[in-house]
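Re: beginner question about structure tokens

> Can someone show what the tokenized structure looks like for a real chain? I only ever see the sequence side.

Sure, here's an example I had lying around. Input first:
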Amino acid sequence: MIRAYKFLLRPTVRQGQALGEMLRDHCSLYNGALQERRDAYRHVSKTIVKYGVQSAQLKEIRAFDPERQGRWSFSSQQATLRRLDKAMQAFFRRVKSGGTPGYPRFRGVNWFDTVEFPKDGDGCRWDSTPHDPVTRVRLQGVGHVKVNQHRPVAGRVKTVSVKREGRRWFVVLTAEQERPQPLLATGSVAGIDLGIANFLADSNGAFVPNPRHGRRATAKLQAAQQALSRFPRCKAKDRTANHQRAVEKVAHLNGKVRRRRLDHAHKTALDLVRAHDFIAHEDLKIRNMSRAPAPKPDPDQVGVFLPNGATAKAGLNRSITDAGWGVFLTILHAKAESAGREVIAVDPRNTSRTCPHCGHTAEENRPTQERFCCLLCGHTAHADTVGAVNVLRAGLVHRHADLV
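And the corresponding structure tokens:
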């Protein structure tokens, strides 16, 4: 199996400058390749330039511009061209499926924040000084950079990526390793119901409160964004020192919220995986749930629209995004696979409206957000707990069907 590791880099001043130049030159290569594809399609009878053609041009590009392109790893530049090729393939796939195409855009220097080395030892070397007590990664054109390695890397390193987040640099490794030893069986099973009032409710009656990291940081974010809005929009190279600090302030606060949300998801998922052998959850279509409502034209007046609840839906969408259900479920599946646990997604329809005692399903069974009261048998419980119990039952049925 493949696992990823992310470590903080400790570059010197010169190495930091070289890392910034590496990102800038790879961004220039990406934009130049995109421009070539656009020109070929528009002016040469809709010719589609593919990755193989652009990769074959790399030798000439490196020889023509040795100061900016010739100093970096050849394989990392190929990875940048593959990145563009994947974006183009995704664009054409969305066109064919009838979705919103979203043509690939040119990347600014601040938007292009990652350079990938597809193979350890080709333009990069992880733990390049094994006899040195300090771990270092060697990057072509940069040198041996110190790494704050806070945990050991298990398995053989496959790829190495350098990523910039604000003013900090990180190295991201993917390592191939044997399947780890599964955790000891606990004999426990659980269903979970994700929500807004409570982040999570399980079938055993336990609740995980919603930390609402985004809402807690709203005041600081609004103040920082208001300070940023006072500056005119301009390119990064034309920003004043105060403008740059305002940009970094907003980015720092958003990054802090993202890291807190990620930390909460990791800890919650780890507790579930350690406690239960089998976990069932709702198969949520989060993108559809957070979609803005369609406008409602007034049939009596042209150009006039009726109220469609967009304001209330916008608040709900912010809460869904702030909860981070998608990130949590991705982490839960990854940790369960490493621990030898089983996770199943089930259809979420009517899970909070069906009585777990008699099976009666009705919208009126849930009179409020928290309260469940069956109209047929009178069973009462917390609505989220009822939903988790029904999710668990559906998951066990699905599991039994798969085994049969």
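Each token stands for a local structural state, so reading them left to right follows the chain. The mean pLDDT is 92.
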